[in-house]
Amino acid sequence: MPIAPSRLIYRPPHPADVLRLFEIFGDPQTNLFNPAGPMASLDAAQRLLDRWLEQWTAHGYGWWAIARAQAPQSIIGFGGIAPLDYLAERRINLGYRFAAQAWGQGYATELGRHALTLAFDTLGLPEVFGLVRPDHTASIRVLEKLGMQPFGLLDDVPGKAPSRVFRVCHPTTDLA
Predict the structure, then answer these.
(1) CATH class of segment(s) 8-169
(2) Rg of the chain over CA atoms, in angstroms?
(3) What is the reported pTM?
């Protein structure tokens, strides 16, 4: 069932979203901090979308397709919480990617708040992590606004500075 807050609408991705996913993930501007660079092909977008759909089937949640409430048919990004391998450890990760036209409007923070509400209030998860490149100051600010705290580093990109790991715990969980 879609979650419809005041400005954004979230829904599970559909197979028909593959072209929009490729437009957003293949845009060099949305990949400024992605060491892998822009998504190279529609086939790569299809593989990512297939993985997201499998996560929805297996877990009942995953990355959402995101639209503005005033334009529900126009996807502006993808994001939410989903299991992600942090090298050898699987964690619930908060992530997002918005079209460049949607930047600077607080959408990432709004998405993060709703994703954390789902994680803690609905799913009862004990903690959520965020993984960010060390020079991506805008995303670091978003994670901090969401109450996420620095948790460590992850040497996930050979030859580059390690990514920063942030974490927020369920309000009633003490995971010191």
Answers:
(1) alpha beta
(2) 15
(3) 0.91
Enter the tokens of residue 117.
């509400």
The series of mean pLDDT values per 10 residues for the chain, 176 residues long, is: 68 97 95 88 97 96 96 96 91 97 95 96 96 95 97 91 95 64
115 token code pair? 């994703």
Contact 65, 75 (CB under 8 A): yes
Find the DSSP H helices in the chain: 18-25, 42-59, 107-117, 137-145
Q: Are 98 and 68 in contact (CB under 8 A)?
A: no
Torsion sign across C-alpha atoms 78, 159, 156, 153: negative
Orientation of helix 137-145 relative to helix 107-117, angle to 10°: 40
CA distance 159 to 105: 33
* Domain extent listing, the chain: 8-169
Which of 89, 85, 79 lies closest to 114 in space, CA to CA? 79
